[in-house]
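Example 3.2
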Amino acid sequence: MPEKEKEKLSIIIIAIIIAGVLSACIFGNFFLIEASGHCGVVRFYEYTIGIFGLCLWAVGLLTGLFLIKKNKKNKTLYVVGFGILAVINLAMLTAAVVLVYTELAADFVFTETDSLIESVSQKGDALAALELGKRKTVSAAPLLCEIAVDSSKDINLRHNAVRSLGLIGFSLQNRDRAYESILMSLFKVLESSVENEKHLRVEAASSLSLFKDRRATEPLFACISKETDSYIKGGIIDAVSRNGDESAVPLLLELAEFYKDDDYLSYRIKKAIENLKGVEK
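Structure, written as tokens:
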């Protein structure tokens, strides 16, 4: 084989190996590192797939390199080695590209905002509802407000709608009509007394705390008074603290006296008072 052709083949082989190594890093990161945040069953399967895939790629890589290096005079084995090297690395590259594309698609990178709104409206897509909030889509506020207060809708969809309303409302510095609609919808969620909506009320309280609007103080305390779960009360007390209204301190002091025998709530109230007194200064 002429020297120039050998040089070209060497460059191609090196390029294939580099592409394969980079792809293996992406593949391994997805299946081994990201799996750490999943439950035990999912983690087991992802570790198994990840390790098996990397081992298969490594064996193919080493086999291909061995055949290329040891059989330069045997054209058939050389071609087989080169083929194995190309196929195994191409497979790894394809897997990495698919994984990256899937991740991006799951984050709606390729989805237009109008399509997201349609998906929420027509299909009740909870993830799309959350994405609208991340994009601060003010035009989606009326739809999300409607979903947030509609008890017939899926609770996960409503939860994400409430969270998105907080993100959208926070982005509206001028407090226009859209802001007022969001505020009123979140107040209405707080007024609910349905037991299975208690976590939704905490999410609404958390969204309201982003606005730093003093009008939220009274509805938040009204919600605290009717809740029966201490942890739910604690979550809303935290929202009162983050809302930054120092006029809430006297009300918190009253709560502190009322719940003095509840260690958890006493601690949450104490931290809220300290935080608001810091704001007052």
